[in-house]
């Protein structure tokens, strides 16, 4: 049982993907420390259900939800306005929403659904909230990433980032993990000296619903996986709340260690390329 942290009880933590998996694990860990946690849920129903679980698990009922479909730019625009109207401050944004789509799907706005949720939503939501984060500084953005052992050769195909040709769910999922990590590093560069930091992290294996769109044999294996992995994400809670890493910026964390500088594995200029590409897809 973690002790309440009086130094963070007045900070506002916003967690995308807070209804399940890594996001919910981080929201729960932060609530256990006494924090004010706001989760982004897809509906009022799922938001309320997740908050009920979190308050039952932690005794902290200060949580709140805001609803958005993060695959849609229109919804990201609306929810970021709601957040800025509802809260005076925002100290931490946790980018933890994610999905795997094994079949190619487009959103109503014509964007590849997995790219929209895993990458573009982080770019848009973060940029839309940068003003309130900067006003609330010191503030942090933390972005969930993949296992660093799979980052040996992180290739992002900028010519076909939405995989319009020869779509493969697993390749697209991997590429989106690379791209969101690159996003976190590029954001860090752009935030230098602003009082807001950006770091990426590998959560380890966390209980998850990520297989919901998977073929039946992967869905069938999910309960087994969930039975043996943790429902907590200590590293995410640490990065969101610990004072000792307040100045860390542009770092990839794995188990509280600042690990291999993965950014050296990306081509020079790749972060800027990704930024320009996302900006070009922006419709609001
Ligand atoms: N779990 C792990 O062990 C692990 C390890 C390494 C990396 N990761 C990465 O962490 C990310 C999240 O994975 P997870 O395991 O936490 O998956 P998860 O259990 O499926 O949770 C995904 C979260 O994202 C939300 N989400 C998905 N699409 C959305 C949309 N269009 N609008 C709003 N919210 C949406 C989901 O909301 P709903 O509840 O409404 O679906 C849910 O809250 C993924 O990028 C994954 O690759 C996970």
TrEMBL record:
Keywords: Oxidoreductase
Annotated Pfam families: adh_short
Protein name (Swiss-Prot/TrEMBL): NAD(P)-dependent dehydrogenase (Short-subunit alcohol dehydrogenase family)
